[in-house]
Amino acid sequence: RALVVSLFFKSFLAISRKLCDAGIMPPDAVPKAELSGADVFHTPALRSAQLFERVASDQASHDPIGKPKVHAAALKQATGEAIYTDDIPRMAGELYLALVLSTKAHAKITKLDASEALALDGVEGFFSAKDLTQHENEVGPVFHDEYVFANDEVHCYGQIIGAIAAANQTLAQRAARLVRVEYEELQPVIVTIEQAIEHKSYFPDYPRYVTKGDVVQAFAEAAHIYEGSCRMGGQEHFYLETHVALAVPRDRDELELFCSTQHPTEVQKLVAHVVGLPANRVVCRAKRLGGGFGGKESRGMMVALPVALAAYRLQRPVRCMLDRDEDMLITGTRHPFLFKYKVAFTQEGLITACEIECYNNAGWSMDLSFSVVERAMYHFENCYRIPNVRVGGWVCKTNLPSNTAFRGFGGPQGMFAGEHIIRDVARIVGRSELDVMQLNFYKTGDYTHYHQQLERFPIERCFEDCLKQSRFYEKQAEIESFNRENRWRKRGIALVPTKYGIAFGVMHLNQAGALINIYSDGSVLLSHGGVEIGQGLNTKMLQCAARALDIPIELIHISETATNKVPNTSPTAASVGSDLNGMAVIDACEKLNKRLAPIKEALPEGTWQEWINKAYFDRVSLSATGFHAIPDIGYHPETNPNARTYSYYTNGVGVSVVEIDCLTGDHQVLSTDIVMDIGSSINPAIDIGQIEGAF
Prior knowledge:
Elements: H1 2-21, H2 32-35, H3 74-79, E1 95-101, E2 107-113, H4 115-118, E3 123-128, H5 134-137, E4 138-139, E5 146-147, E6 153-154, E7 160-166, H6 169-178, E8 180-185, H7 193-198, E9 208-212, H8 215-220, E10 224-232, E11 244-249, E12 255-259, H9 264-275, E13 282-286, H10 301-314, E14 318-321, H11 324-330, E15 337-345, E16 351-363, H12 369-379, E17 388-397, H13 411-429, H14 433-440, H15 459-470, H16 472-485, E18 489-502, E19 511-518, E20 524-528, H17 537-549, E21 556-558, E22 561-562, H18 577-602, H19 608-617, E23 623-629, E24 648-661, E25 667-677, H20 684-694
Parallel strand pairs: 1-14, 12-13, 16-17, 20-21
Antiparallel strand pairs: 1-7, 2-6, 2-8, 3-7, 4-5, 9-17, 10-15, 11-12, 11-14, 13-22, 15-16, 18-24, 19-20, 19-23, 24-25
Pfam families: Ald_Xan_dh_C, MoCoBD_1, MoCoBD_2
Protein name: Xanthine dehydrogenase
Signal peptide: 1-22
């Protein structure tokens, strides 16, 4: 109702302005400050600039590190020639798999009848929990608390109950709709974090606490104490390529999978578990993904497992690519969070203590939620030093599709709470937010509440650079005068600093492997454990190999990521893809350089091709594996107190100016400035693309 009245008033202002311009109404009939209420937003012409460190170019060397090299597959992707999983041509005898999904949030399955679907011509099979043993049906990325197919009970809307294999997609989806499922609804149905708190619906072993200093004493001595809360909703990944898998039986007891996943090893492991084969008979291959953002780190199994089972049992190729609505329904989102905090601070705004409760909405299964809440607990203070801390984390169990990894992995949600706290403190002590931020910033040498020392902490520099680059104070003054002169349109400016810890929270994942094969014509085939999701990882790996071998980048090729080239890979996630795999690539290159050194000494004037040819005829091995594990991490208060939690931190500061239309709630971001400290960039073009894309 309010919006209708606002739009009517908007049209009144627009008509009045025209009448004033035409001289029909006196020019001052409508106050000047009201007139801009008639305006609507138009997309402005975009203007942007990117500044980065330039690396001196030496003509003689082939070193591409630090140079803004074009993404290796950019032209193929831009022209549509790049091959994604579902672009693989149909095979002889291939079937399509369609999923039968739950239509209740919490219910017992009383009847499951696929006879009508199986009667259709071209339907080859129906699979459900009855086709697997209890052990085979239980799956999950860390804890096996999920099912390939729902077993007697469904825990969320969109849970997979069964799958139909048929001659084509249209038929399979039609048959899936004919499968009859009858339910007996169960109570309670828990959807929100508040409902989970009310029903005490938490996963076992939660809450968990991290403490530093003495919170009780700090609160007793505080000049000010403030209690507040904030919440953050979920978010859909919306990768352009939805989840997809194609399984091809090779012989009776071998399976090959082409899968859109950030974690091929996990798909291999779970497929082997479900079909009852050892892992050495299952190969998972991923050439490139059409985006992932964390949504394909663990949830790829929801499509890959039913597809692999159908292919193995029917001994025919089977594929499934989710429609967008199916993908959004079943795969989970970013974790919604609720934070309740109590903060103590001085008259000047210096924070002395904070007690905070972090609740995340995990959905119906654990997935990676334990790790997400831990990262939120470790990032809630953002860039601010708080001497006394008690932070608790709760993983809430609800009847939603299981929420999962999503760019930042709990970090953004935690930092969101920290920024709320800073703004509350600034408001109460009557100082500007920027002053309170600077007063509380960590300094180099400070310790976090999880006992990690900040060895270099350049947040002040990022902060100063961003203020200067964005002309912050100038814009602030312009905004104040704009807001005085316009009643129905208002502008605001905000600054947010960030600190993000680089490493997997789970210790054993901080490792990577690589395989390099050099062929007798001098060309190099590189395989590594990371997946190309569009983020440019392969391009960076080519650069690392070109520098390490000192050859032109054009001689090196990466074909795909496959579990039979590099085993036991970690997911491509947590912003460590290039750190881990790049070091493994360098390790392999160093082994090859050592073998080639005597030949290079004997033929100092030779070319790369001549050296390789000589090595081949001298029977020198031209294949090497590389490996890297991040050193000195894996902090644990009892078992490993001297280690770090994170390998290092990246920092950034962003400033945005936003205008809102107070009548309609419409808004527009007018300008944004971002300063990121990511060390010396391997490839500034790709890193800027990542930063802008993330923004």
